[in-house]
Amino acid sequence: MASHDIRRPFKRPAISDQQRRRDISLQRQAQNRRDAQHQARCLASTILSLQPAQYEPAEPDHQLQLELEPELQSEIESDVQRQDLRGIDDVRQASRLKGAEARRWFAKQLMLPEWMIDVPERLNTDWYVFARPAGKRCFVVSSNGTTISRLRNGSMLHRFPSALPNGARTSNNSNSGQSYCILDCIFHEPDQTYYVIDVVCWAGMSLYECTTEFRFFWLNSKLVETGACNAPSTYHKFRFSTVPIYNCDHEGLNVAYTGPVPYVKDGLLFCNKHAHYQSGNTPLMLVWKDENCSQYVIDTDGKGQVPNQQQVVLELLFDGKLATSDDPPVIFGCLSGDFIKKTGLQAGNLLRFAISEGGLSFVGWKIRESGFALPRQTQPCSTFC
Amino acid sequence: MALEITQYLLAAQSPDAKIRTEAESALGQFRDQNLPGFLLSLSFELSNDGKPTESRRLAGIVLKNSLDAKDAARKEHLLQQWVSMDISIKSQIKSLLLNTLGSSVSEASHTASQVIAKIASIEIPRKEWPELIGSLLANMTQSDRPASLKQATLETLGYVCEEISHHDLVQDEVNAILTAVVQGMNVTEQNHDVRLAATRALYNALDFAQTNFENEMERNYIMKVICDAALAKETEIRQAAFECLVSIASTYYEVLEPYMQRIFELTSNAVKGDEEAVALQAVEFWSSICDEEMELQDYEVPESGDSSAPHSRFIEKALPTLVPMLLETLLKQDEDQDQDDGTWNLAMAGGTCLGLVARTVGDAVVPLVMPFVEANISKTDWRSREAATYAFGSILEGPSTEKLSPMVNAGLDFLLNAMKDVNSHVKDTTAWTLSRIFELLHSPATGFSVITPANLQRILGILLEGTKDAPHVAEKVCGAIYYIAQGYEDAGTSSSLLTPFLRDIITNLIATADRTDCSDSKLRSSAFETLNEVVRCSNLAETSQIIIELLPVMMSKLEQTSKLQIVSSDDREKQGDLQASLCGVLQVIIQKLSSADETKPIILQVADQIMVLFLNVFACRSSTVHEEAMLAIGALAYATGPEFGKYMQEFYKYLEMGLQNFEEYQVCAISVGVVGDICRSLDDKVLPYCDGIMTLLLKDLSSGELHRSVKPPIFSCFGDIALAIGEHFEKYISYALPMMQSASEVCAQMDDNDEEMVDYGNQLRRSIFEAYSGILQGFKNSKADLMLPHAPHLLQFIELVAKDRHRDESVTKAAVAVLGDLADALGSNIKTMFKDRAFFTELLGECLQSDDEQLKETATWTQGMIGRAFSVCG
After folding, report:
1. ipTM rounded to 2 decimals
2. Count of Cβ atoms closer than 10 Å to residue B312 Cβ
3. Distances in Å between the alpha carbon of A347 and those of A316, A355, B265?
């Protein structure tokens, strides 16, 4: 029988450089594999969103056309909606747009709610609800070390440094030049805070075609991490905040409707959980207002006084019908040919009516002029700041 | 049926190769034509006292090799062969073997006992040799049997116990065996050979005696017999008895308490006065106790001090007497122990044990050792100085930095001076101690180091001088430099401290590697390995110029190796070793320089030349590829990116060779890794080579011969290929997917009590997921539908893994990622498949709550992909 071997390593450092080289190679290969797969996964949204363009070679200049002739937009509504599912590439370009071009582009990008006129099916399971902050609806874009907010007509609200990815020129900003964010926000004047109600792009990744569920999740997990919710500082001029979002069950509705929030409420917003981010009005985002949850439910005059009668401004169409400026317009009624003839009204005129017990009564009109800014109280309620 | 084969067996041992080969082929022919007859003939030969010892011995060995083999597949084959043989032949063979135990020719009986054990290992678990134990025991109990039979029987019992599990026998049989063995060990046994055989049999049967060790009376008796045998007159018996104690130290640690006083006395006396062979075992007993206690401490629950098994703290209790005993051994050095690798003496064993004691008890060892160090380190006798230094070096691991740092700070200067000692043993141990100090007490990254900007220059000056000392001293010095460099890796601004010395260090290490006064290549390997660490850990921004200059130096050295004159296979081996070292250095340089954008172009500039050198290294061998060159090529492929394409045509044949190297499975594994590197570098340009590569990878997977550790990397590699070539992977689907599916079924059936298998299972699971991920992502844009039929199986597999309680984090990550890939690639098609599966929500929930940011992010992405798939109409 061989003697039990008791030799132990003696005075020898436990190094095997060869094993170490193998291990380091394996680690490097595993890391490279992770990177390659990660890249494949992130490109997911780009490739899918570019597909319409590839499959419709007949419309190569589609994008250009939109830029030049914005008024054609409604005619090619369906195409626009598809284009709105835009991928990283054109959103990234958009983030670099400046001046008038930027205004034009951003003017069409916000997702706008329709009025809630009936209860959608599966409201309690498929929808979120939250109390909408009162203030200026805007897109906030952080890129190239600065942050710009643009109102819904595309004009700039603020240019400022922020803690958003690539939102300020700070030495510790490790994001690459490719990194940028586009957030859908409401700027709430009283506490000078941007309330983020949706996210379109985060750190270079397009979330256009992700569901609301996912976008909200992403927003809630990412925003706080960046420090954007911290109090303002040198490199972070305005505070950002998320809003509390609830499932649309009985309890959620109740909290959203009556619960306290740190901001002035302006109605309730309902969002379908499965909807993608889509520019313009959509029935997958609904708004509700009543006097319990909004101070803007009733018109006020220039001095903030509630007039005796509520008024509404309607547009006269060619066939005598009266429509709101909603998109799509809501037909409210029609004027008789005699009345039109007598008053000399023309299609396109905006008419002010007072709402009384018996219906609408004509108050006056303004001729619509291009670029004419309507006084506040004449704006239909369905357009949002 | 049995044939006369004596002549063939003798001829097969002839010094004449021709005669030998003929005889071997004749025997082989006999075996192939009539296996039962062949085995029977061998048994007759072995059992026949009239035959020459040489032919009997070979008959026994051939017989044994017909029953057992190292390779698992072959072993299984031999087992089946034996089992299916005619029962009457088997009975004859077994009875011949049992008869041989009584042979007066000890070589024959000894061989027979080994063959019997092999048959027992097959038949006893199958209950096909119930009479074996009975007949062996009869040899022991009947008083008229000769001592030689008893001796052979005890030996057989030991071997049988070693081969089988005690669960294969009824407890009565186990008891009877142990009774027979212990009886044979008893002081009353007059025959020394029988007593020795019994003691050695007990050593083999210790694992067998679990039930008996649980019973206090039986245990007391066994321990008493062993302790008595440890005092036997014969050295061999004492040594065998101590070997039993060593084995008991690890097998039955938890019941040792009552015997420790006695064992301490025995070991202490043995260390002080017994023969070295016995004393070594006595020291080993304490080393084994340290191993046990360190393991118990590893599994201790930190807050409560509880551990599942009882910790008796034997070392702590014995410390005041144990440490002086060990220190005494340190003075018993051999004159030339540092030059001879084969030496293992009491001083070495004692110092090693002292190191283990320090790791077991920590700070408590320090005050017991330091007086010895201080008393001896300046003595005129070299043994005292060496012993003191060795003692000091041995206790550097275990005690706290707080306890050690004042002593080390105070002693460092003394040690540096001792590098100029007149005695080379003292210098050897001093250099080793310095390397231990730098390994354990030099960590600028965590804020503590015995090296300061003030003493660094002196330290390096002395060490660089030391590289010119005797080869064994220089080798230890390289170790010290290695750890100095390692400490500065990722050490922020501290890493700049080494920069001014880097050129000197590198020059010295190259000169050390070039030394020709060494008997073997150990010093050269150490010098190159240290050079690698120095390059790897250097601050690239400050040292890039030096490393860039090193590159052509190493390249020209590698070029010279192909001009070496090769006459013998020894020359060939030396050339291979040198090439290995140089390829290693080049790999490290390539990796270092390609890690920064500023220096990466350097590699691109010389890539052509480097590649030629590597191809030349490959060309030096005909049948195998050089592992180190392959490893370096992976680094080059990563560094060059798509440029690597131009080397493919030349390189491909070596890649093929590497992928087919089953025996050296490390080479195969590295080649598989290189395929991944190439895929990522070339993307779809790798396509022309994929048929060949896939064929070999599939062959590797189906091989029973290839080491299993290579198989997970192959699955991962499928993913790499699929991601690179996208839709072109379609043609491999019908081959790769069934392999992936059957491997996932293997995962489901793995033994989850075996820690090693759990580990392997996790690797396999992760790699299968990686394969699916690559294929799904690769097909996403155009061929995603191809994966539809495979999706339910994948989903089922993910579910299975999600519910596995042994799942590790990396498997979870891969599982969550592949879930997202499935949703990403198949879109709304997954709706029906996902609908009734709650597991993925749970899995995602678990991941989203994880502290691991990467995992959280992957899970979030996956959630988004699933959400998207569900929100798409259709």
Report:
1. 0.74
2. 18
3. 5, 22, 117
Residue carrying the six token digits 């046994």: B189
Contact B287 A274 (CB under 8 A): no
How far, CA to CA in Å, does B173 sit from each of B131, B168, B176, B201, B202?
A: 11, 10, 5, 15, 15
Chain A interface test: which of B397, B529, B638 (most A C-beta within 10 Å):
B529
Cα–chain center distance at A77: 19
Res B224: pLDDT: 96
DSSP string, A151-202: ETTS-EEEEE--SSTT-S--TT----TT-EEEEEEEEEGGGTEEEEEEEEEE
| Cα–Cα distance for residue pair A50/A88, rounded to 1 Å | 9
HEC profile of B93-150: HHHHHHHHCCCCCHHHHHHHHHHHHHHHHHHCCCCCCCHHHHHHHHHHHCCCCCHHHH
B566-578, pLDDT tens digit by residue?
Answer: 888 888 888 888 9
Q: Is A1 at the interface with chain B, CB within 8 A? A: yes
Q: Give the whole-angstrom CA distance, residue A10 versus residue B280.
A: 14
Cβ–Cβ of A41/B432 closer than 8 Å? no
Q: Is A61 on the interface with B (CB under 8 A)?
A: no
pLDDT at B303 over 70: no
Contact B827, B847 (CB under 8 A): no
Q: What is the pLDDT of residue A350?
A: 75
CA-based nearest distance A258→chain B, Å:
30
CA distances from B629 to A120, B670, B677 (A): 68, 10, 14
Q: Is A98 on the interface with B (CB under 8 A)?
A: no
Which two tokens mark B174?
């186990």
Residue of B nearest to A19 (CA): B666
Q: Global pTM?
A: 0.70
> Which of A134, A182, A161, A137 is CA-nearest to residue A227?
A161
Picking from B609, B687, B603, B685, the residue whose alpha carbon sits closest to that of residue B642 is: B685
Nearest to A218 among B352, B680, B860 (CB): B860
Residues from chain A that touch B349, judged by Cβ atoms under 8 A, are: 6, 8
Helices (H) and strands (E) in chain B, counts: 41, 2
Locus of tokens 């290695």: B482
Cα separation, A198 vs B251, whole angstroms: 65
Question: First and final CA of chain B: distance in angstroms?
Answer: 77
Identify any residues that bridge with A205 across adjacent strands, giving them in sequence order: A202
Stretch (H or E) spanning A247: strand A246-247
Tokens (6 digits) for A241? 């905040």
Q: Which of B738, B837, B735, B822 is nearest to B787 (CA)?
A: B822
Encode B417-485 in three state secondary structure.
Answer: HHCCCCCHHHHHHHHHHHHHHHHHCEEHHHCEECCCCCCHHHHHHHHHHHCCCCHHHHHHHHHHHHHHH
- A60-66: long-range pairs with CB below 8 Å, 24+: A63/A90
Say if the Cβ atoms of A47 and B781 lie within 8 Å.
yes
Does A276 sit within 8 Å of B349, measured CB to CB?
no
Which two structure tokens, joined as six digits, stand for A262? 């740190």
Segment B419-462, tens digit of pLDDT: 999 999 999 999 999 999 999 999 988 888 999 999 999 999 99
